[in-house]
Amino acid sequence: xxxxxxxxxxxxxxxxxxxxxxxxxxxxxxxxxxxxxxxxxxxxxxxxxxxxxxxxxxxxxxxxxxxxxxxxxxxxxxxxxxxxxxxxxxxxxxxxxxxxxxxxxxxxxxxxxxxxxxxxxxxxxxxxxxxxxxxxxxxxxxxxxxxxxxxxxxxxxxxxxxxxxxxxxxxxxxxxxxxxxxxxxxxxxxxxxx
Amino acid sequence: xxxxxxxxxxxxxxxxxxxxxxxxxxxxxxxxxxxxxxxxxxxxxxxxxxxxxxxxxxxxxxxxxxxxxxxxxxxxxxxxxxxxxxxxxxxxxxxxxxxxxxxxxxxxxxxxxxxxxxxxxxxxxxxxxxxxxxxxxxxxxxxxxxxxxxxxxxxxxxxxxxxxxxxxxxxxxxxxxxxxxxxxxxxxxxxxxx
DNA sequence: CGCTCAATTGAGCAATCGCTCAACAAAGTC
DNA sequence: GACTTTGTTGAGCGATTGCTCAATTGAGCG
Lengths: 194, 194
Description:
CATH class of chain A: Mainly Alpha
Helix content of chain A: over 70%
Oligomer: homodimer
Shape of chain A: elongated
Number of domains of chain A: 1
């Protein structure tokens, strides 16, 4: 309701959109969810964003923040610590919403060009940061990873795959089992570690 | 338009639903897509199915047929042949629609109980058939797979993960690269093979 | 033929969606 | 204070969805 400069309003809307997609998912979230989160009229959103563009931007922001929090922002710490935390927290309840966003971005990307681009870019960023971590651990002697670039693709794939399996309600694969499988896969890629 | 016994009509509708979800995906498919595929009035579908139930049944049927075609139905062949074909065809263009169904079933399962149940059951069937194949190759001496049950979970996970990465339009991971990564992951699980 | 009842029709209901637009309100400018 | 610009409102449009239901058709049967 307060009157804001355009840039500030854009920021507020983007943040509200991030909260909304984390709560309801990319597919179920609506423009009205975002505007009612802000306590603002429905028409205001279209003045600043296309829904497709806002949704893609919110996705990019949320994923980027998570990569930063879990990998990129921990350059100073020991690679083995960062990787171990990554494995331990991968399938926690709090991570569910993020995995859901990945799945939905992949699917919606098939009919939404902006989301496809965002998903592609986010995948690149993820691969880059993870392979950077693996390379760092390799040169630090924390583990043996002959090809960080390739290994990170496989680790990302098994992360996504296990996450999808865990997300299914009444899943035959428990969170603990998924973490176990991830740990073994990481061991396959990084020799003895994690 | 022809008048049919209830059971036959149910079968025709189910088959049309399978064609429809393969063509448009689980989320984009509508009841009208199915009835117009059959050249039948829109109201007829609701006389035999709930959309949620029909969609879940069509998903189960499609996935079941694929598992049968690629694994269960090839019990007579050498396990290494079956596994090699599995790897080679995993990320072919024709497989895209099936992987899309998996992704969508996971996501829609979060708000559709019938689809969640179908996805959970399909996952079980898949895990069971793949771990059976791995065990068969193990006892035949085709490879060394100490725990087929666990290995099949990891292989399923990396299959799903790589498939999702390939599905993204403009994906940073090509089909060939995905096949390569899958081959290496399978090698990790089954010793020297595939 | 006449009757019954299941199969089938298709207009349309109620809800939901992103987005439009005329109207209004508050700065900013001179 | 007059005027322009920009932020904001909210009713509502047009399209889409699964599903309803009164009406119609036609096969089976005595």
